[in-house]
Design goal:
Blueprint (H helix, E strand, L loop, with lengths): L10 H33 L7 H23 L4 H22 L1
Helix pairs in contact: 1-2, 1-3, 2-3
């Protein structure tokens, strides 16, 4: 009985996966920062980022972490699709809450 070797992703997929990993970590840090700022603002009776921003950042962080897990675990077509999903969710969140 022969054991099949695991497929290795191409260099392009590796770079894409690395970039999406960096964005996933950044989104988690932004979500934690938003939570911290909101708690600080509530304790000082300041406006803060607001519930919508905090919830959206937490949901985006959960989505990108799930996407990054898929991108890291698979070497077939699921990996680049998951990495692109991480890029899209991160870009949409950054555009909506930070740049627009």
């Amino acid at each position: 009985m022969e054991v099949e070797a695991a497929k290795r992703p191409s260099r392009t997929y590796g770079i894409l996966r690395a970039v999406s990993g960096v964005l996933a970590v950044g989104m988690v840090l932004l979500a934690l920062g938003n939570i911290g700022v909101q708690f600080y603002a509530n304790s000082r009776d300041l406006p803060g980022p607001g519930t919508l921003s905090v919830v959206a950042h937490v949901v985006a962080a959960l989505l990108v972490v799930a996407g990054q897990i898929v991108a890291d675990r698979y070497a077939d077509w699921k990996a680049p699709i998951a990495s692109l999903a991480v890029l899209v969710v991160s870009g949409a969140t950054l555009w909506t809450f930070w740049w627009a």
